[in-house]
Structures are given as structure tokens and as C-alpha cells.
Amino acid sequence: MELSDFNYELPQELIAQDPLEDRASSRLMVLDRETGKTEHKTFRDIKQYLRRGDCLVINDTKVIPARLIGVKEGTGAKIEVLLLTRKENNVWETLVKPGKKCRTGTVIEFGDGLLKGTVIGQTEEGNRFVQFTFDGIFEEILDQLGQMPLPPYITHKLKDRNRYQTVYAEHDGSAAAPTAGLHFTKELLQEIREMGVDIVHVTLHVGLGTFRPVKEKDVLKHHMHSEFYIVTEDAADRINAAKAAGNRVICVGTTSCRTIESAADEEGIVHAKSDWTSIFIYPGYKFKVLDCLITNFHLPESTLIMLVSALAGREHVLAAYQEAVKERYRFFSFGDAMFIK
């Protein structure tokens, strides 16, 4: 399986730079994974494709304002620190720019000394371990000093940081939003509940590896990034009950999909667990739990377009993407949505 098998031409102007005023007014392409047939709708129309007894799985992770701009103590050089994973004793694994100015022992000040970080080591990939010192509560200081870590293809400044959160975001820990969920409003979710659809929460903290390009020509040699997830007893029971009753499990986003597929055994039974997953889903993968997927339009040659190709078939997905380009759909994080049924 070659990386180039998942490439497509995308005009730069179709990369959405800003979220729409009304979340649910995004366009929705509906793709039949058996036939490849497509329909063009508005996201609000998702209700037409849901039915009583369906289980809608959403990822309730919350993006933290993980981008910190500071200065190197002594020289005043500007340093950017991106928080990736919390370790222990206020130590975080981070991405630091410029890295060559941040050897072990370097001290970085943020907000005129409100927060200080000391580089105490690094990973094989060059990520830095930074130990933070501060007075007060770290989350409150981060809220004051940090910025939302928008993907590299978004160049516009975000006016309202809540627009890079889902309306059901609850558990702090992500460096990127589970963007398929950005289309839902609280009202739309309530209407879906009233239809008899069971909405189940899982948590997967999205890492920046989600934007890391695949560099291997042979897709199977790609080393997948690892992310932390939580499936509660209640969530597992409700997903399993839906499957046992012959109802569909519909994931909102690739992160929800990766969570339940990671938590399921070979018989397709989902188990309550907290763990790290580096599951890599590409064509040939047999889905154990998921039946349908609500997702956005993904980057060419990304692990995410490989995941949707595993579900709907590469030819169907690339043809649908070609049609989306022709119809001037908006792509990526703040873009339009697709329902694969």
C-alpha cells in the first residue's frame, strides 16, 4: 500500500480558515459505503440518517490552551512551547521552537515570570521535558497565558477560543479538537436524544501526532502516535447493548472510532478501560464495533483519510473527495462534514 494511493488535489482556498457562525449550518456529504453514491445536505439534516436505537459515540475531550510564548532567561530570546503530554510533578512533554536554544537546564519565563519552565531532558524525537514552577493553580495560569494550538494549516487568528471546542467538551487534555464534533449544537444534540438515539461519551485526548505527516512511502511502515483514552463501564455497557439489540454504533469523528475499536475485543465486545492506543486503521482493517462514521474532510496522505478509506473503500472515498472539491466544500478542521453510512 503506497502513500501516494491516498493523495488528492486540493486547492488551497478550500482549506477553511474560520468556523461558521452557526455550527450546524456546515454542509454535509452523505456517502453510501456500499455503492459510493453521495448526497449533498446541511449538517442539521444528520437527523434524517439517524434512527431510534442508534448509539451515537462522542469524544468529550477538551482542548487546553497548550501554546505558550515565553522568553529564555538571560538572553530574552523568544521561545514557543507546545504542551503535549502531562507527566508527573508538573513535568510536561513539550514541543519547543527553536529547539536548539533549549538544551537541558534552559529556563523559560512566561507572563513576566508568572510561570517558569526548566528543560530537564528530551525524548529520542527531540521533544523536551519541561518542569514548570508557579504560584497558584496551573490550569488557571495556563488559561490566562496560553493560546489554542490551532493546526498548522490554519493561519487566521481565532476570535473566540470556544469555537475550537465541541459544545460537550468536558475533560482537559487535548492538543487538538475532535473536529467532527464541532458541527453539533446543544439544541441539535437534544433533538437527536428526543428521537431515541443514545448519546454515549468516551474520552480520547488528541495529540499533535494527528497532524504529523506520514513520511514512509510504504504505509505499513508508518509508526502511529500514541494517545490516552478512557471508556467507562457505563459507556461500554450502552455500546454493547446497542450492538446486542442489532442497532448501529455511529462514531462522531475518527477519535471516537479509534477509542471504541481499541477498547473492543476480537468478538466486538467493548470493555471499560483507560489505556494508551496507537491503533492504526487502514484498508483491510475489519471494524469490530463501528457501523457508521460522522467525520470531516481530511488531509491528503494522512492516517485519517486511510481510516475513512478502510471503512468506505479507497476508490469511493477519493471519488467523494473529488466531488467535494468540485462542489467547493470546505476542508479540514473548520470545514464541512461527511456521514459514511
As for the number of domains, it is: 2
CATH class of the largest domain: Alpha Beta
- Output the structural class: alpha/beta
CATH-wise, what's the superfamily of the largest domain? Answer: QueA-like
Q: Whole-Å distance between the termini?
A: 25 Å
Notes on the structure:
The two termini are 25 Å apart. The protein has helices spanning 138-145, 186-194, 233-244, 254-263, 303-312, 314-326; strands spanning 27-31, 38-42, 55-59, 61-63, 67-72, 78-86, 91-97, 107-110, 115-122, 128-134, 171-174, 198-204, 227-231, 249-252, 273-277, 292-296, 337-340. It has a nine-stranded mixed sheet with strand order 2-1-17-16-14-3-12-13-15. Strands 5-6-7-10-9-8 form a six-stranded antiparallel beta barrel. A two-stranded parallel sheet has the order 4-11. The protein contains six helices and 17 strands. Helix 5 packs across helix 6. The mean pLDDT is 94. The protein has 341 residues and is an alpha/beta fold. It folds into two domains: 3-63 and 160-340, QueA-like (3-Layer(aba) Sandwich), CATH 3.40.1780.10; 67-145, Thrombin, subunit H (Beta Barrel), CATH 2.40.10.
